Each structure stands twice: as structure tokens, then as C-alpha cells.
Amino acid sequence: MAAETEMEADEQERQNLDALGEGLIHEEFKEADEVSNIISTLKDIYTDQIAVEMALERFTVIMDSYQEQPHLLDPHLEKLLGQLIEIVRESAVPMPVIHLVFKCLYLITKVRGYKVIVRLMPHEVADVEPVLALLAQQNPMDHETWETRYVLMIWLSIVCMIPFDMVRLDSNIKTATGEVKKPIMDRILDVVKIYLNVNDKALDAAAYCAARFMTRPDVKKKKLPELMDWLVQGLVKADTSKMQGVTAMRGELATLAAIFKHGKREDVIDFAPIVLEKLGECNLREVNNTILRKLAIKIVQRLGLTFLKFRVAAWRYQRGSRSLAENLALKGLTPAVAKPTMVHTKLEDDEEEEFDIPDEMEEVIEQLLNGLKDKDTIVRWSAAKGVGRVTGRLPQELADEVVGSVLELFSLRESDAAWHGGCLALAELGRRGLLLPERLSAVVPIVLKALAYDEKKGDFSVGAHVRDAACYVCWAFARAYDPEEIKIYVNNIACSLVIASVFDREVNVRRAASAAFQENVGRQCTFPHGIDILTTADYHAVGNRTYCYLELSVFVAQFPEYTKALIDHLAQVKVNRWDSVIRELAAQALYKLTPCSPEYMANTILPALLPQTTGIDLNTRHGTILAVAHITQGLAEWAQENGKKITDVVDPSIIDGLKNIAKTLQDAKLFRGLGGELMRRAVSCLIEKLSIAKMPYHNDTIIDCWQEIIDDCLRHIEPSIQAAATSAIPAFFSEYHSLPDGSPKPEFQEKILTRYLEELKSIVEITRMGFSQAIGQFPKFMLQGKLKPVLQSLNHAATVMTDKDKTFAEARKEALNAMTCIFHTVGVETDGSPHSVICKENIHEQFDILFVAMGDYTLDSRGDVGAWVREAAMCALCELITLTVKVNPTLITAEITKHLFCCLVQQASEKIDRTRALAGETFMKLLYHSPEIPNIPHKEELLQIFPWEEIKGLNWAVPSDTFPRLTKLLSVPVYCYSVLLGMTVSVGGLTESLVKHSGTSLIGYLKSLSNDAGAVQNFADVLIKIFKDYQKVDRVSLPMLKMLDQLLTNGCFQVICEDESNTFPMDLLTLCKQEISRSGAVQKLLASIDIFCTLLQFSSETKKKALIQLMVFLCHRYPIIRKTTANKVYEALVTYEEVGPDENLDELLTLLSETSWDDEVEKLRPMRNQLCSLFNVPPPVMKKQPMKES
Amino acid sequence: MGLLTILKKMKQKEKEVRLLMLGLDNAGKTTILKKFNGEDINTISPTLGFNIKTLEHRGFKLNIWDVGGQKSLRSYWRNYFESTDGLIWVVDSADRRRLSDCKEELHQLLVEERLAGATLLVFANKQDLPGALPAEEIKEALELDLIKTHHWLIQGCSAVTGENLLQGMDWIIQDISSRIFTMD
């Protein structure tokens, strides 16, 4: 749980509970017939492995769905079992069928439970031999058929109970070999003993079978001492350091536990002392195996119950008459009698105390108490049940001692396991009425302590299970006791439960606490403001931790009974927890709670927290610094609302103390190292909050110290620290760097700007990012008169790329983000001064810079990191244009709008989903902007293609939704180039869905033009232009080749290529050749092969040139190129007509397919030249550069 | 094995049933509960609150939740440990004027998914008063026949005389137990 995030835990929790609640969905066993059919086919399908698997799979699915409501199977069980058993009973059934049958029987048993199934198994005298015979045929080690052995053993456990003397079944007839058959009783015991030593589920069944068998009067007499002896001997001998020993011991322990459970007290009591003694010798507490420890505890419990006679403790606590029928029968005549009175009966005659308690009980109880401390939950739970049951049979004094011992578990020396076990035991005792009200005064404080249990272990802590169990105790107590008994503890319990339900770190504890609170309100009726709280902080509401801390806490704190407890808990416990998220939430919650009790915060909490802010423990320092920061802000706001100043509500020593925190930490060098990161964040927050609180530190030297810390944080490598410092800047600068008239302190402004702008040129990317963010946060007065240099520096940082910083995409992104913020801060004024605002003088330069940034396609090992820059540039453009249009639309020239919209549609057609989404949304925002953006080219068409009603819900990141619309823009000449440029990258991209949807849209669009040669020609021209413009720019040209291949193979240009004189194919060919010249990029070469081959379908001139190029490829230095070319040419020969002279076709095909193109180029050249002559093209000649073809 | 598993097992072993008692105000919910509990029914004022009572009947442990006069009931439907197994909807059979309100409230409640599967018992209470509508007519008025998502039964009764209360409880327990418990 600790490692999981809240969300995940929450989700999982929800699912768990839903499985619990809504899992109960069946009304009846609907599939009864289907199951029956499956069973009847078993005999026919057993040889067909697939059919068998399918049948079993289906059987399992059906059965498993009834795991939560197994009783629904009951009406059908007899029939199903009968059907299955019948198959087994048939003679000469092959063993695989038998195994199948038993697999089905097992699946039913698993769902319904063996106790129910066993009663329905046939158990007549006639069954004894077959079952034993079947068991004898089994191989106890076969891991594939364990179900058979398990179910047989279960079956045996009822068969062996036939009510006849076993001896009468034994025959004296000799077998073929002349031996007398062993008596049945011995045979049963033998087989059971075998299975007590196997490493699978059959062992459990064997233990059960053994115990049942031993309850037979005849067997008991003859065999029980012998078996007990065997078991105890085995126990002592077993070596638990080996697997075999563990298995053997598990069998023996399980049998003993079962014998003491099923056996009659008088039959087994004689064995009890010796078993207890031997069990003690085995020292099972030290064994590592959980099951063994659990079984041991179980036996101890049963031994305890064997030593003590059954009785209901007369002294137990009872709460009123609870029988519905009896109460209704009263007819309301005698209310006085019916009133629930405390029947805390203590029989006057103490004769009940007379019976003696065996000495062994001491050992039993000690072991049970030890079991409560076990490291595993199941052992603790078993021990807790044991404590409850055994205590119920003890006389009052002894029982009270047990309670006392349980309470001793709650000591700081004990482990979390002991606390958990203790809680389980308390709940168990409370439930049974064994925890008398007199004990509550001792028990309640302990439970409350457990409710807040949290032990630090390294850098996390344990205790959620203890707190959860403590909630359970509170819940159980609410049911167990009369309100009168609980009354005096109500306030404490209520506070603790409320604290747990709003402030616990874990969602399960919060929910458990809220449930316990609810139960208490409903049953005790004395919890202050119970209903208000439980209906607000209910199961659903406490699911979200942030909501708990920041909203629910405020709601609860309005009730005076809870206010102080909540504040104290946060200030004393939560602010120094190990989880930094909790500390931060606690600090924010304290801020929210400040108005509930400002005096208490100012006079008690702040003075208590202040010394801890510079203490030794890192977590405490972090938490308390945040806490005092938030509380001070809260107090300042409260003071202001009440017409006071912070200095009126907080003691001067506190004001001084708050001031000195940063300095003290700096002097102690606490900003260094790992802990330094937390300190930096905390102090940045402190500076921010104290600035908001307008603390009287103006002109104090601390301001320089703070400035230094902030600058240092901005340089820090950790983005979260930069962010913390950045968010402190507005408040800090406004409060301490400005003059009362709102203008900057001149020396400060100059100094800071010079330094910050200088940092934008840093050779460290992260530093640039930090300071860009900081500059973005500058309040308006800091930019007053200095806008020019600031923008210049940012422009530089955003667009200028040198060798040193060309990969600094993130720094450029932050510079652009800062620009966006500054546009917003200073605003636009047409005739304003370029030193202070955006105006007609500087606006065009800014647009230009942003358009440059729109072309940032920086690549690094992370991929297209330029996308971040383009996204930031889009945001900046959007901000600038929307600000401007509101002030003076004429500042926006037609050129700007056109450029902007072209950029946006291009980005909206490119391959990164996130970028596309942002571009699309910006595009829509500006298209439908009010006031209208002037000069949008072809606005009407845009509005038609992107009607608001259809587009407003569109997810631009989904290729299948966006591309069909974007392709329509291709018909608008202004946008054609941009859209096609963007789409080239998508259609020729790598992502399957993207390629598919963008490609289909594009081809669909072109097909729709098929009759319009002019339109296709226009498209082709744009295509050629893009290809030319981006010649050798791999980002575009490689996808271009891939896209061209798709378009050509789909015959998209058929209509223009019918005209032989059209230059399009030739242009393409030329461009392709140029693209691959001197290129060693395999991907590109491979893509070009496809293009050359598709060009083979065109006019003779194009075809010839393409062939020549392909012939060159056949002797390319890369074997993969040679092989691929041969394949593709072969395909082209088969696909297109008249590629080569018809008469040579067969020879060409043979030569292409039979030549091994992996061979040395020298050997291949003759074949290639032969191909050339067959094709009627001149063979390529070696050029001057030797590398071209060798 | 977590605490949740343990609790679930315990609910099975102890045969616990969680019932929510609802209805318009003055329907007689608290009177019924007091009657169940064998308490004096002569002093009852409008409830604004929340009461859980545990009663034993036919080997089952009934936890009856009486939520009176509260606006939001969401908090009671389900918590950490338990979900609601059954609803007891109490109607004032003599209050003809508010029967349509009563119908709407009931049908609104039943669409709540957290109550899916819960058994519904409608107590047509106050049959001892003159002018009380018989259960059959209440059934029509509440359009109970439209309810397909829940098992339901309407039972005329009187909290004051105790008439038919037991019959209603017998039915709801039988219905719930067949759904959620393993019978031995």
C-alpha cells in the first residue's frame, strides 16, 4: 500500500468493495443444464485435448461465478454429483475420464465447500471397496491429477463412517498370491497415512478423513492411541528446515487439529497434555512456515477448549433483550420490563467457579497470547479467535487476567504485529461480551492510541493495519455496549475517529474510521454532531485524500468539540510524517483551519512549531516550515478581514523568528545535499507566504538573503524547486522590491534584470529554463521601462541557435512561455511605449519571432523535441493575437493572419497527437474568436468545413476524426501547401493508426477529384513544390517518398498521367534521383526503389530513366538494396504492362529471381548488364567516384 | 487475508443482515423500531436522527437502521464493512394526501445502484386507524408492480398493535437469506 499512489489504492479499494457488494448478482443457478450437458459429454471428448480444455474452461468459469453465492447450487447438487459419480461407477471407464470427472467434482467442491459436498457423496457399504481400490490406483506424486486424489480422500472420509463394524467387511478369502487381505480398517489408515505426507491439497482431505475415521467407536478403541502416537512421534522427528519435514509436519498438525475438533472431549482429553507438551518441544513459534504456525495455534486453541468444559460464561456482559419475536410478543403491555436493562449477570451462587482449571491452561493461554504477536495476519487472527473462545470458558478472575495480558501487548516495546493482534483480540472479546465495562477505562485509551499508531521504519512507516483494526474495535464496541457505558469516553472516541477518517494517509483506514464513526452515531446516539459529520464525511467523501484534508477538515472543525483536536493532530503528528505529500497537505489544511481558531493558531501552535523549523529532523523541518508559512498567511488574511495587521495578531518574537528561519538554515548549510531539495522548496514557499502576509521585513537584510535563495533555486537542476521559487516571485517582488507608489525600487530593478537576463545566455539549459520561468512571473512594475531588453533577451533565447545550444529545445520552450506570460502582464496598447507595453512598434517583431519558432524541428535522442517549442509558440501566438484583437484589430495585418492560420493547419496535420490537438484547438479558438480575428483567408470555407456544432466536441488527437476534415482544406489553395506539408509527415509516418487514417483520407480526397484533371494537376504541382523545397531535408523527404508510393500505387494521378506530355512523372523521377544521390540512408533508398518501380507504369521516357536507376541499384554496394530492387522489379514486371519487351519477359523474370543478389557486386555485374540489354536500356557506366557502385 | 475478508466471513457465520428503514416522515418508522425492540411506544416525537438496533430472529442477527427525517441518505447505503441487504419502506396508510409523494420517493430510491439487489418490504402501516387504505390499494398507489429490479412484498400492519409486523419481517429475512446465506 505504501508504494501505491492514492489513486491506485482508491481504485483498487473500490473494486474490492464492488466485488463484495455487487458480486452478489445471481438469482439462481442458471447454467445447471449446461453444466449437466458438459458432464454428459466427458466420456466422448476425453481423447480430444482441445475439447477437454474448452469443456473444463467453461465449467470453471460457470462454477467460479458462484463463488460468492455457493448456496444457489444446492438444489442442483444432488443431480450433478449423481451424474458424475455414475460415470466413476461404470465398469471399464478409462482412467483419463475418471480424472476428468474428479476435476469437475473438485471444481464444485471448491465453490460449495467440502463440508457440504461430502454429505452428498454416496456412502454405502458397497462404496468402500471401489473407493479404496481407486485410491490404490493413484500415483500420489502425479501433479496433474491431484484433484482425483483430493476428492477421493474427501469421499473416503464419509464412506469410512458407514455404521457397521469394520471387521464385518473383512473377508478371509485369500488372494491369488495366497496372502490374507489386510483388514479394511488398516487399509484405510494406511492410505490416509500416505496422503498425510504429500505436498498437495490431498493432505488437507487426508487430515479431515483421519479425524472423522477416529471418531468411530470401533476405530477409536483400536486405533486412536496408535495414531496419536504415530502423529506425535512424527511431530518430534520432523525436520522443519527441509521441505519434506514441513510437509510431514503439516499433515500431522492438520490431523491433530481436526481430531481435537471433531473428537468427543472425553475421548481426546487424555491425549491433550502429551500433545501440548510435544507441541511445545517442537518450538513452532520459531518456524518460518506460516501454515505450520497457524496450525499450531489452532491446536493449542482446541486443546484449551478440550481442557475446559463447555459453558457460557455467566459473567459475560449482555446488552438487553434482543429477540424480535419475544419483544413483539410483549404486546407493549409492560414497557418497564421490556426496557433494555443491563443484564450484567453475576450469579449469586459462585458454584460455577468451583470447577478446577488444569495447570496446562497456563501454557495454552501463554501460547495463544504469543500467537497474537505473530508476524503473519492469519496466525494472529487464529490466535485472537482462540483467545476469545477460551476466555469464554474461564472463570471471571482468570478471564480478567487474560484481558490484562492482552492489554500488555500495547506497549511501545512490542512490534506493530502485536498491536494488530491485540486489536483483533480486543474486538473478539468485546464481541463476545467478555470485556466487562469496568475494563473500558483501561481499554479505550489504548484503542485510541492504536487508532493513531504509526511506527517509523527507515524512510516509511508501518501501522495502517493496526489503525484499521483499531477502527474495527471501535466499531465492535459500538455494537457491544450500552450508551451508558461508553458515554464518558464519547468525546475522545469521536475525536479520534474523526481525525482518522479525515487525516489518515490510507484510504482504507479513513473508510474504516468513517464506518466506525457511523456505527457509533447510530448505536450510541451521543456523538457530538454525529449525523452532520457522518453524512458529510461518509464512505464516498473520504475516498479522496486532498478533499479530506482541505474541505472535510474545515467542515468538521466548525464544531467546537473537534476544532482543537484536529489542529493539534495536524500540528503535532502530521507535519512531521515521513511522506512529504502528507506534510504538504497538513500545512495547507492548517491554513484552511486558521480562521476556525486564529488565536489558538497565533498563540499556541505557531510558537510550538517555530523552534522545530530549524531542528535536526529533516521531515519535521520541512513540515513545520510549510506549516508556519501557511498559518501565517491564514492569520494575515484573517487579520485583514478584521481590519488588523499581521503584527497585531502575532507576537513580535514570532515575527522575528519567522524572519530568521531562512538565514539560520543557510548558515547551517542546510540547503545542500539531498535534504537541501526539500528545504529549498519549503523556504521558497515560506518566502511566498510571508510576502503575501506582508510581513514587516522591508529594507531588512533578510530580503537580500531571500533573493539569493530564490536565485539559487532558479539555477537548481530539479524542476520542482525551480517551480517553487518561480511561484514565490510575484508576491515577493511586489511586496519587497516596489516602492509604495507601485514603481520599482530602481537599484533593485536594474540589478535583478541584468542578472536574470544574463542567465538566459547560460550554457546550462536548466538554468535558462529556470530564469525564463522566473521572468515570466515578473509583476508588471518590474518590466516598466525595461520591456525592450527583456523581450530581446527572450527572443534571442527562443530562436537563435548556435552549435552550443541548438539542442536546448526545452529552454526555448520556456522562453516562449515567458513571453506568453509577459504579453499577458504588460498588455497591448497601440500607441504605447515599446519600453513598457506591446505596441505597434514592437508587435510585428514579436510575431516574426514566434513564426520563426513555429519552424523549430529540433531532434534529439528523445525524438522531435522541437514540438515543445512549436506548441509554446502556438500558445504565445494565440495569446498575442487575442490580446491585440481586443485592443486594435488593425495591428494584425493580413499577412500575419494568413501566416498564422497556415502554421496552425500545418501543425494540425502533423504526426504528434499532442501537438496536433493543441494546433487544432487553437485553430478553432481563433476561427470562432470574438471579437473576430481580421483577414482570415477563406473564412467561409473554413466555417463550412469546421462547423462549430460538429467540431466543438472533436478530439483533435484522434487521427480518424481529424484527417477526413483536414483533407478538405487541400481544395483551398491558400492552405493546400501547409496541409499537404503537414500530412506528408503523417502519411509517410510510422504510427500505424496515424498512417492508416491520414493515408485513407488523402487518397479518398484525391479519388474524389479523379475527373477534375485541373485540380489533380494543382495538387501535383504543390506536391512537387514541397518535394523541391524540402529536398534532402530528411524529416520531410523520407515520408514524402513513402507517401508518393502510396499515392502512385493507388493510381491517384492517373487522370493527369494519361497525357504523355505531362511532366509530373519526369519531375518526380528527377527529384527522387536528386534525393538519393550520394545518400547512404538505407530507409530512403528502399523507399525510392518503390517510387522508381511505380514510375515504370508511365511513358517510355520516364520508364527508361527509372529502369536505368533501378539497374544501378542492382549493383548497389548494399546487398539489401540489390535484393529488394530485384524483388520489386520482378513484381513490377508482373503487375504493369510493357515494362520490358514482351518477348524477353520470361528471361527477365528468370534472371531476376534466380540470381543470388547477395553475391559480390563484381560477380553480379554481368547479370545486371544482361538484364539491361534485355530491357533495352544502356548498362550504367562507372562514374568517376569509385564509391558510387563498389 | 485482510480484515475485509475476515469481516465478510464473520457476516456469514453470524448471519448478519443489514436493513434500512425508510419512508416519509410520520410514517411510523421509529414506532415500529421501538416495537421491535420491546420499548415503550407512547412517547415518540419526530425523529431527526439515526438509530441502529440489533435484534435476533430465527437465528439471524438483524441490524436495523432507522434513518429519520434526513435529506441525504447516500451516506447510509454502503460503508466500509457492509452493504444494505434489505429496505423496509414504511407508509402511513391513512395519509392519502401524500401517497404520490411517497411513490416518487420510493421509486427514486430504487434506481440507486448501491441498493441494487436489496429486498424491499413495504409496511402499509397504521391499519388500525379508521380510513386507512388497505395494502392492496397502497400497492396500486405506489405502483409497486412496476418494480422489476427488486424482490418486494407489501404487508399491511399496525405498529401500535403489532399486527402483522412479524409476518413482514419473516418474509424479508427469508428472502434475503436465500440470496446471501449458505443454509445448513
From TrEMBL, chain A:
Q: Which GO terms describe its cellular component?
A: lateral plasma membrane
List, alphabetically, the Pfam families matched.
Answer: ARM_TBCD, ARM_TBCD_2nd, TFCD_C
Boundaries of every Tubulin-folding cofactor D ARM repeats domain copy: 292-531
First and last residues of every HEAT repeat? 364-401
Positions the record marks as coiled coil are none
Any GO BP: microtubule cytoskeleton organization
Keyword Kinase assigned: no
GO MF entries: beta-tubulin binding; GTPase activator activity
Q: Where is the Tubulin-folding cofactor D C-terminal domain?
A: 899-1084
Highest taxon of source: Eukaryota
Instruction: Give the protein family.
Output: Belongs to the TBCD family.
Annotated PANTHER family: BETA-TUBULIN COFACTOR D, TUBULIN-SPECIFIC CHAPERONE D
What name has this protein been given in UniProt? Tubulin-specific chaperone D
Which gene carries the instructions for this protein? Answer: LOC106178803
Automatic annotation (TrEMBL), chain B:
Specify whether Hydrolase is a keyword of the entry.
no
Q: What does the similarity note say? A: Belongs to the small GTPase superfamily. Arf family.
Entry's PANTHER family?
A: ADP-RIBOSYLATION FACTOR-LIKE PROTEIN 2-RELATED
Pfam short name (any one): Arf
Q: Which organism is it from?
A: Lingula anatina
Q: Which residues bind Mg(2+)?
A: 30, 47
Q: Which InterPro entries does the annotation name?
A: Arl2, ARL2/3, P-loop_NTPase, Small_GTP-bd, Small_GTPase_ARF/SAR
Top-rank taxon of the source lineage equals Eukaryota
Q: Name the SMART domains on file.
A: ARF, RAB, SAR
Q: Which UniProt keywords apply?
A: GTP-binding, Lipoprotein, Magnesium, Metal-binding, Myristate, Nucleotide-binding
Checking Gene3D superfamilies in the record gives: P-loop containing nucleotide triphosphate hydrolases
Query: Which GO terms of the molecular function aspect are on file?
Result: GTP binding; GTPase activity; metal ion binding
Residue positions binding GTP: 23-30, 69, 125-128
Q: Does the keyword Lipoprotein apply?
A: yes
- Protein name (record): ADP-ribosylation factor-like protein 2
